[in-house]
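User: Here's a structure from my thesis project, written as structure tokens. My advisor, Dr. K., wants to see whether a designed sequence matches the one we expressed. Can you design one independently, without my sequence as a hint?
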């Protein structure tokens, strides 16, 4: 890979799907760093050590975050916020990043703690409904978009984090934290909630998963996602989520009215417009 990796000592807090995939992807770089990782379930970290994906298991998150060149928080949002507040004093001159689905809350905490110049927010648009270290993969990020929110960070730190993702084969997309978070509500949060509600409606109608065709399986796939990850994200972006839900409700109300009035030409018009949008026309 042509992009140089700038860090020699990396601390990863959290070895689930994202953290585990980061460890694996870093391990196969041409110049892999020394990786120290912490996971609340130690057996997971011990497995990563036994597999050679990390160099040491930290006894605490503070240990993983201290004395490193790069610290990566690969935890749910609420956990990352708590840990950043607890660990900041031990960061020293480390560059700090994360893989959380919202960026403004973390950037705000970094600023409050006086580390805005060291924090570079990251959000890889990778993964799926499978969770945990056992689902991790060295090529999870290859070919995927990673949003990087540099904010007030020093330019060399932003470039170093961007190069890290590029070394893993990802496509980096710089973006402002506020713009990122609004985008994610519509591109990620709303599809998740729609999948949950659709799955509930199907279950209440007596359907089973084996009754679904490819379309039904695609639309309900996100219902398998982790509630623990999603609840803190939804809470932090509650106002924009409500606007997204209202927009979705408007669409359902439109369909209810059109179908009750047998205005199928209006339904067809909606279908044509959305088909063109989906095809990029």
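Assistant: Designed independently from the structure alone:
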């Amino acid at each position: 890979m042509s992009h140089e990796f700038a860090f020699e000592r990396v601390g990863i807090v959290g070895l689930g799907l994202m953290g585990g995939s980061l460890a694996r992807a870093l391990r196969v770089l041409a110049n892999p760093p020394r990786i120290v990782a912490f996971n609340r379930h130690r057996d997971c970290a011990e497995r990563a050590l036994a597999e050679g994906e990390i160099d040491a298991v930290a006894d605490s998150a503070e240990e993983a975050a201290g004395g490193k060149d790069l610290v990566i928080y690969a935890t749910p949002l609420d956990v990352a916020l708590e840990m950043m507040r607890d660990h900041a004093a031990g960061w020293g001159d480390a560059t700090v990043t994360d893989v959380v689905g919202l960026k403004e809350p973390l950037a705000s905490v970094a600023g409050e703690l006086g580390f805005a110049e060291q924090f570079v927010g990251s959000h890889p648009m990778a993964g799926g409904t499978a969770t945990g270290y056992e689902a991790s993969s060295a090529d999870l990020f290859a070919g995927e978009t990673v949003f990087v929110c540099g904010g007030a960070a020093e330019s060399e730190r932003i470039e170093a984090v961007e190069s890290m993702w590029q070394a893993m084969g990802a496509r980096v997309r710089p973006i402002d934290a506020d713009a990122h978070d609004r985008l994610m509500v519509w591109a990620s949060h709303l599809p998740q909630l729609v999948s949950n509600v659709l799955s509930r409606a199907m279950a209440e109608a007596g359907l089973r998963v084996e009754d679904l065709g490819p379309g039904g399986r695609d639309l309900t796939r996100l219902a398998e996602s982790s509630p623990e990850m999603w609840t803190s994200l939804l809470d932090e972006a509650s106002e924009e989520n409500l606007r997204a839900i209202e927009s979705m409700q408007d669409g359902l109300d439109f369909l209810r009215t059109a179908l009750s009035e047998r205005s199928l030409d209006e339904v067809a018009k909606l279908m044509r417009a959305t088909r063109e949008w989906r095809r990029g026309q």
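When you compare it with your expressed construct, this may help: Residues 129 and 225 are 5 Å apart (CA to CA).
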